[in-house]
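Quick question about two entries, pasted in order.
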Amino acid sequence: MGLDPQVGFLHRDRPGRPGLALDLMEELRPYMVDRLALALVNRRQVAAEQFEKNESGGIKMNKEARQTVIAAWQSRKQEEIIHPFLGEKVEIGLIPYIQGLLLARYFRGELEEYPPFLWK
């Protein structure tokens, strides 16, 4: 798309940190990540017993939980929705790419404003 992935607007620039990618994920996190995580918990597909605390105090998923989450994510990416700005059917997994394209179009002056991904 011609955008520098290191240059963010919401995240401070740091060497090796993809600030722009992190910025784009901020708007997509509620729909793509939080919604999936809550669905997995509500459907009891992942449970507290599947998480382990390590010596440093960090929490990590066990192998079974990781497999469940990855399978659910792969399935979710295949689902189709009508993109709120484009009005076309797209796979959920393509939304970050589409939003990146829209941001590039805005920077080039092809769009008057950046159309954020807003899902009702």
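Here is the second entry:
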Amino acid sequence: MAYIQVDVVSAEASIFNGEAKFVTLPGESGELGILPGHTPLISRIRPGTVKIVLADGSETSIFVAGGILEVQPGAVTVLSDTAIRAEDLDEAKAMEARKRAEDALANAKDKADIAVVEAELAMLAAQAAAARKLSQGRRSH
């Protein structure tokens, strides 16, 4: 069976590096599924979950706060400012950070501040949703 090399990198560290059968992630205009031999592609990605089906059939999930995707026939590279392994996601912390961001939005004075806080809110909402979805998936197994 053919595999694809997958690298998920954040500003802080390499989060994942390994071979996979299949990768799905939130592309800019919809969900993307990538198999070995995929046509080369560069795209922006939205905040959400990168799901990687490993060579042994197991799955790993990584939350990304948006970023850039590069696909080559034998490799997938995901670059994101923030990438968090599913097991490290904490819905309560994301909701707490979202509340602080909402308070900051209420006190924002100019359009630049508002735009920054709104982008942070969108990322935190996606992070909380990913944490909730992943924790529900763990409970159902």
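Reply: The helical segments are 91-107, 111-140. The chain has a mean pLDDT of 83. Hope that helps.
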